[in-house]
């Protein structure tokens, strides 16, 4: 079952600009930066009580984040939920009729197992499942 919100993914054109703005807004430094090469994305993570904000910048024109920004502009890209058993959760959602982008987990930021649920199944909202 879904445990809690892990993070909110926010697509940005410039990670440097987003980090500078949110350092001032939140009054703190990001917890860290990470590049996930196979997803062609660079991330900056700000910890919040109980969740995190994950700012995402595409590292190539064909990255999912770059395509998202080109189509919809910068903004909230996805909501990520923590799960204990991602394989069981994928099967549960598929059995309930949800369309999965990832039918098998893949490796995401911080080495977590992740899978995305297609937004056509979730009222237009891209959902990420995350097992640490």
How would you characterize this protein structure?
The protein is globular and about 45 Å long. It has a single domain (2-131), classed as Roll (2,3-Dihydroxybiphenyl 1,2-Dioxygenase, domain 1), CATH 3.10.180. A hairpin with a 4-residue loop joins strand 2 and strand 3 (41-48). The chain has helices at residues 15-26, 64-72, 86-95, and strands at residues 2-11, 32-36, 41-48, 51-58, 75-83, 106-107, 113-117, 127-131. The protein has 132 residues and is an alpha+beta fold. The longest helix is centred in the first third of the chain and has 12 residues, at 15-26. The model has no long low-confidence stretch (mean pLDDT 95). It has an eight-stranded mixed β-sheet. The protein has three helices and eight strands; from the N terminus they run E-H-E-E-E-H-E-H-E-E-E.
Q: Main traits of this protein?
A:
8 strands, 132 residues, 8-stranded mixed β-sheet, 2,3-Dihydroxybiphenyl 1,2-Dioxygenase, domain 1, 23% helix, single chain
């Amino acid at each position: 079952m879904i445990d809690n919100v892990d993070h909110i993914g926010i697509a940005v054109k410039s990670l440097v600009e987003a980090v500078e703005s949110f350092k001032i807004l939140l009054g703190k430094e990001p917890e860290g930066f990470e590049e996930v090469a196979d997803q062609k994305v660079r991330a900056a993570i700000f910890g919040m009580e109980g969740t995190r904000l994950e700012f995402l910048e595409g590292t190539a024109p064909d990255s999912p984040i770059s395509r998202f920004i080109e189509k919809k502009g910068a903004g909230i890209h996805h909501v990520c939920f923590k799960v204990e058993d991602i394989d069981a959760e994928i099967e549960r959602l598929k059995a309930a009729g949800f369309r999965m982008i990832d039918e098998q987990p893949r490796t995401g930021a911080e080495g977590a197992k992740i899978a995305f649920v297609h937004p056509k199944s979730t009222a237009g909202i891209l959902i990420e499942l995350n097992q640490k």
